[in-house]
Amino acid sequence: MDRGKAGSKMHVLSDGHGLPLVVGISAANTHDSLGLKPMVAGLQTRHDPDRGWHYKPRKLHADKAYDIPELRKWLRGKRIAVRIARKGIESSERLGRRRWVIERTMSWLTGYRRLNHRYERHPRNHLAFLGLAAALCCYSSASPHRTRS
């Protein structure tokens, strides 16, 4: 976090395969951890009305920026298991097996020219293009004849 940094920051919540589930943006001078609660709260649970099942996220993997006791407590209250590297105790290398999934997702999203640099003046326009790119990523992974660009 840099208080004088201009621009915006993308926040992405993805599944285990890297498909973007929830996207968001914030100012570049805000801490990453402030974007976690709105992202998790924005994640809709899938509901199967025939069987009466609710599908909720079970586990969250995150890096050291999200190692805040309040966030851990909040996630435990939502019954979401947490795997966050602890500051000063664990190395970030231990998350390497899972981290590449979200890094790949971010690469898919920034592969769209409109998102690589922020051309839009208004944040709602940038968020709309980010949502569109996330939908295209999901579509291209579901379609067997299409490839990601």
TrEMBL record:
Tree of life domain: Bacteria
Gene Ontology BP, a term: DNA transposition
NCBIfam families: transpos_IS5_3
Protein species of origin: Streptomyces wuyuanensis
Protein name as it appears in the record: Transposase DDE domain-containing protein
Domain Transposase IS4-like: 3-137
GO molecular function: DNA binding; transposase activity
Transmembrane segments: none
